[in-house]
TrEMBL record:
Stored Gene3D superfamilies: RHS repeat-associated core (2.180.10.10)
InterPro entries in the record: Rhs_assc_core, T6SS_VgrG/RHS
Protein name: RHS repeat-associated core domain-containing protein
Lineage of source species: Bacteria, Bacillati, Bacillota, Bacilli, Lactobacillales
PANTHER family according to UniProt: PROTEIN RHSA-RELATED (PTHR32305:SF15), PTHR32305
Top-level taxonomic group: Bacteria
Amino acid sequence: MAVIERYSYDPYGKVSNTSDTISTGFLFNAKDGVMTDDTGLYYMRSRYYSPNLMRFINADVFVGDIRHSPTLNRYAYANANPTMYVDPDGEYVTVLAGGAIGGLIGGSANLIDQVMTDGWDNVSWGEVAVNTATGAASGAIAGTGIGLVGAISANSALNMANYTGTQYFNNESVEWDELVFNGFSGAFGGLIGG
């Protein structure tokens, strides 16, 4: 298979070099965006992006979070740092926000449950960490909008990982029936929330 076109881009997506041996008729076609016409704008599934302006031309639907200042600029691409972050669909911050919210809910709910059940002195901080991590992963996955099948699969796997990690930090063995139950309950949660 021969390479018929090659593009190079700067961090903000502006074409810096092209070489072609045959005209394909496409202005640009790639995994994350499609250059729609001679304006040079990329359509990134939820909004349009201008590599010349280094920003989106319409606002993100996510308003932003005062505690994370880069999210307040609703036109910024990849939180204004494309060498560090990616923004494949113009809704990257939903992944960050989903992860932060999911982690906060997962860790807090587990901590409250442990304190109410066993008292403050008997909190398993490893269990809190596992619930924070799996909550963050679940929230981040929800922020991607991966669809029903993806949500079911991801939540099933995360629920089983959460159970296994909790058992590990509590020095308890993994019971196969409980592992399967957690997989099914995670899948059901993905179905409901998916």
